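Please check the following for our workbook:

***
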Amino acid sequence: MASGSETISVLDQDGAIRPSAAAEPYADRALATSVEQRIGFLRDMVRVRAFDVAAANLQRQGQLALWVSSYGQEAAQVGSARATRTQDTVFPAYREHAVGMIRGLDLLEIIRLYRGAVHGGWDPAAAGNFRQYCLVIGSQTLHATGYAMGLQLDGATATGDPETDAAVVVYFGDGATSQGDSNEALVFAASYRTPTVFFIQNNHWAISVPVERQSRVALAGRAAGFGMPGVRLDGNDVLASFAVTGALLDDARAGAGPALIEALTYRIQGHSSSDDPTKYRSEEELQRWAERDPILRLRRHLETEGVGADLFDTIDAEAADLAADVRRRTLELPDPPMADLFQHVYSEPHPLMDEQLQWLRDYEASYGSDR
């Protein structure tokens, strides 16, 4: 297995199949994907980018309170999400739009959250076990580890049946690796050998702090200190992301314990729509990473496989239709009833919530019927 300092890649920046030395344990899995699968990866990436751009525009037009972009990180997300199985559970941070889409989440649910049109989120059971977005940095790592411990207690993993054994994958960013919650999760996961894959999207900037200021070693290299394997991959290489995540999830389901992936990628847009990245990164750096665009890399590869312009045009048109549909449905979203605030504070009915809800209703009624 590659050490945390070696980078695993299968496609070079020009889209040619050129596995790195560190890719040797994973190359066969990557190259076993069919051209049809790779076209599917491209379709996912193009669709979620169109969604991302549409959502960013909606925020600029005052239709969303906030937007958190995944622009540039599509390959890391699509490859890893396509490596999961139906029985797996995914714990995202707050920019894993492609992962949610692949797991079955209606992307409008993400819009509802950032628009403030819902007081909670979505039903994970109806979204392919894709859990809620978590804006508290790093806390989802503890949620994921606890859930994985529950799988062990339920006998839902490491039974020897790969068709039913389950695992957990949790996404977080380079900035979250400095949080106490993330480090505690790694300790618990290693101690209890939970079926957890920790997936770090290292987009090089935690808001305004470069990752080298947070860690003097590769983030994947820190895994050894917790007692688990750590690998680093080229996060703009969808085949590498798919192969590595698939292999480590297989190991986790079989009882081998947790593992950590550091996917090297780059956040092209700001940390959020409230961020101004020009204050801390240069235009030259941004341009260098824009030239490594994961969609362009995969498209170049598919061109060498004989995929023609007509198919690319079809994929682009489908993505444009998706973006238009999201915009239309966003503008049709109703405001949530204020009473919904009281519905999910406790898992069971609670007299204090009933009392406060009644106060709200009495207060609203005091304005009269012409309010």
